[in-house]
Amino acid sequence: MPAIDLEALTVRYGEFVAVESLTLQVRRGELFGLLGPNGAGKSTTIRVLIGQRRPAGGRVRILGYDLQQQWDTIKPLFGYMPDRENHFDEFTGRQNLRFFADLYRLPAPAARVDECLRAVELDEAADVKVGGYSMGMRRKLMLARTLLHDPPVLYLDEPTANLDVHSVEVVHRILRKRVAAGKTVLLTTHDMDEVEAICDRVGILCRGKLIALDTPLNLRRSHEARLVDVALTDGSRQTLDLDQPAHREALAGLVASGQVADMKTRHFDFHAAFLKLTGTEFD
Hints:
The protein has helices at residues 42-49, 71-74, 93-103, 109-119, 135-147, 165-180, 192-198, 216-224, 245-256, 270-277, and strands spanning 4-13, 16-26, 31-35, 57-62, 65-66, 78-81, 153-157, 184-188, 201-206, 209-214, 227-232, 237-241, 260-265. The chain is an alpha/beta fold. Helix 4 packs across helix 5 (135-147). 31% of the residues are buried.
């Protein structure tokens, strides 16, 4: 049974279709990246998952429970980290977490708050008012809050935005540990290096539709051999995309006329694959 099961999910804002017939399964114990350009439908999909947006059609199950029929059962099963902080700035980091720990009715709230603060390396700043925190510290406090009740499913919107390199690794370590324990993480990010570093699989949305679903490595490899750098005898260079008929014809013409001095597959990282899949032209 998948952790997240979307079947023909459709979401509309008036006449505008934000998500169209999205069918997607995220496995238990998987770190899944939901990617796409701005306006692709990522945030709308997450709003459905956290109960903020009612779908126009389709069905959603979380850990086997129907989202619309069993919402009360689902609510404690997930943690959500939004892309914007909503802390109580006049409270300390510890007080912020204790407030939410009490809302969750945790059996040992003080101990759990301390554990989460240590996990995100905010224990030394625990008694500093959040109004004095840096942007990175505020993001880490949001993650600590998301982890408080130890949910089996996490929805994270840009979890490493505004973090330094060390803090990014701290977040990645936390996420890997949760996945290793069988928990499920769904995240959005615009950092393609992060995608390759930690995501087991990714789904790419474009204009509300799922256009790709695979591991980052497989998506990169599936396009790598189709992009070539061509060195011409006059000293100039061209990059040609062999998926495009016009580029294939151009290459054939260059070869036939003896203008090609050298040709090799272009280095193709996941960022390039993402741009190609979502319709961005290459230089």
